Amino acid sequence: MFRPISQTQKVVDGVIAVAFVLVLGVLTARGYGDEPVRLLPVLLLGGALALRRWSPQLALVGAWAAAVVQMLVADAPELYDAAIPAIVYACAAYGSRGLRWAAFTSSFVGGAVAGVFTARYSFLYAARGSTSDLQDAVTRFAGFGALTAVTLLLAWTLGVLVRTAQRSRRNRQEADEAGQQVAAEQERTRIARDMHDVVAHSLAVVIAQSDGARLLRRTDPEAVDEALETIGSVSRAALADVRVLLQQLRYEGTTSVQPGLADLDALVGQFRGSGLEVELQRDDDLTALGTATQLAAFRIVQESLTNALRHGDLARPASVVLTRSPHGLEVEVVNAIDPARPPKPSPGGHGLIGMRERAGAVQGDLRAGPDGDRFRVRAFLPASATAAIPVVAAGGRA
Question: What GO MF annotations does this protein's record show (predicted)?
Answer without folding.
Answer: ATP binding; phosphorelay sensor kinase activity; protein dimerization activity
